[in-house]
Amino acid sequence: MSEDPKAPKGGDDADKDHGVLYIGVDLGTSRTAISASNGVRCSMASVVGYPKDVVSQKLLKRDVLVGEEAQEKRMSLRFYRPLQHGVLKTSENGVEDAEGNRKAAFDLLQHAITSAKPRSDELVYAVIGAPAQASIHNKKAIIEAARQCVDSVMLCSEPFAVAYGLDWLEDVLVIDIGAGTTDLCRMHGTMPEDSDQVTLKYAGDFIDQALFDAIKEKHPQAQFTINMIKEMKEKHSFVHGRYDPVLVQFPVDGKPIEFDVTDIMVESCRRIIPPIVEGLHKLIASFDPEFQHKLRNRVLLAGGGSQIRGLDRAIEEEMKERLGGGRILRIEEPIYGGANGALKIAHDMPADFWEKLK
Amino acid sequence: MAGGLQKKLQDAVRKLSYKTSVDQLKQRGIHKVNVVGLDRIVALVEAAVHRTLKARLHGYGADLGPASTGSLAEATREEFLRLLRSNAELEKVHEETKREKAELEGHVDRLRLELLQLQQELEAKHHRVVQRERIRAAATDVELFGELERLFEQAGRPEVYEEVRELLASSLDRERQLLAEARMAEHRVEVETLERRILKLNETLRRTEDRLREAESLQELDPGISSIYREVQGLSHADLQYEKKRGLMLSIFEANVALQQVNQEGAR
Hints:
The structure holds two protein chains of two kinds.
Chain A: E1 20-27, E2 31-36, E3 41-45, E4 48-51, H1 54-60, E5 65-66, H2 68-72, E6 77-80, E7 83-84, E8 87-88, H3 98-114, E9 123-130, H4 136-147, E10 152-157, H5 158-165, E11 170-177, E12 182-188, E13 197-200, H6 204-218, H7 226-236, E14 247-252, E15 255-260, H8 262-270, H9 273-285, H10 292-296, E16 299-302, H11 311-323, E17 328-330, H12 337-348, H13 351-356
Parallel strand pairs in A: 1-9, 9-10, 11-16, 16-17
Antiparallel strand pairs in A: 1-2, 2-3, 4-5, 4-6, 7-8, 11-12, 12-13, 14-15
Helix pairs in contact in A: 3-4, 5-12, 6-7, 6-8, 9-11
Chain B: H1 2-16, H2 22-27, H3 38-57, H4 66-154, H5 158-220, H6 242-267
Helix pairs in contact in B: 1-4, 3-4, 4-5
């Protein structure tokens, strides 16, 4: 059998002079996840740090630290969490040091994209999941940051990316629970419009604060930080069913003491359920009555915040009470759902669209 | 047939993998690992099938007879294995370079420390010799000049004492200088050994730093990991929701074009 000279070569990588790397990015308030067409998948804490002074710079041997490494060494760093409530912290939302946060967002996005290990001889096309209701100013900032390290970039709505990744394009409601926001999105075969989307601030950070306040009130002698509360929540959170008591240790006057926070955990985590069901109600009630039943029974639960144990059952119970029933389906990979969907969009986007946006 | 191919692929993946435990990884300083999910492996296989189909069907029309199925499956398996190996090899080279860089950095640090310690040792030795001589001389001076002063006073010529003292002091200084040089010569062998070691260490340090720079530049030239796609893909016509997805892609594209226009207007 002779080889067709015009056929694509399956030669060694060393001989390769072209290729296309697709990257899907889920830029989240707490975590940023990427999924790429070379098999690389990773997620990192959405935090960035810069050495405070010459001494820490010499010690850390780097100018910028991103993700878990930055979190670990935050005492020696000027520390940034460049996203808040699902969007970049910019001068338009009145944050202090907007310029520092803008630079941190640039560095976070660039680090995320380079984590995909793109080859220099390949085209890099990226789709970034942005919060459903991010402002134009915010989207511009994301595009500007990404353009510096990719050949072409597009933004899409995060909950839409989740649904697209699973090929659920019609009569589906997506609940994407992040750290900063919970996005609800109604899919009906076309691009969701503003009226198809609801963004709530009842998300992971809200639960952390609720837990913090409740534990502080019940155990004023306990010493803890919001980071400790977040870690505790990620490990023990549940809202439905029977689980072991949540026993955690916090220092009291320097001595670790065990506290039972089971009730506080359940109550605090449950506080996001009524607003979510209220949002679902709004989206279902304004949908074509003929398809409302279908929509109610196809609710997709995604995002890092959806990992609270029993959340699907608890939302179903609340839906039964307020909407007469409904069915919640969890996605298999809550952390990578958005990035996988964005990757699939990147893959399906026609070549000329990418070209025109270069 | 398909089952056979799957089995071969599974065997190939197993052959390329090795077993380790969490404790072993921790001992090697590894706290995080990249996990390749089944979906990624499926994506690799899909890409391999796609490429092979393209290569095989080029210029032959769209039909693939049953006779070609066997060779197609074989070619697919080979393409998949090639992709798998190339990515694994690149990762391996990258990891080796990183390890070598870390080792070299450690070596450079050790050499610098050793060099510093030797230099300090040498200086301390020199300082000790000079100090010892100074103390010895000071003790002798006190004793000698005290005795001299007493003699001149007994002889009733105290005014001559200062003159004689200066003369004697300069003569003593010359003699002591000669003596110090002689004593230093005794240590010379030791000093020369230390100096030779310093020179040698400097040379080793220079070479190691050169290698470190090379390793760093190699790391900067990290070729990355190849995508499974050689060309831009786009929606497959075989997709059951082709029309719907095409419309969605167009909507996303238009929204991004509008965003780009806002960007350009803003820049103007």
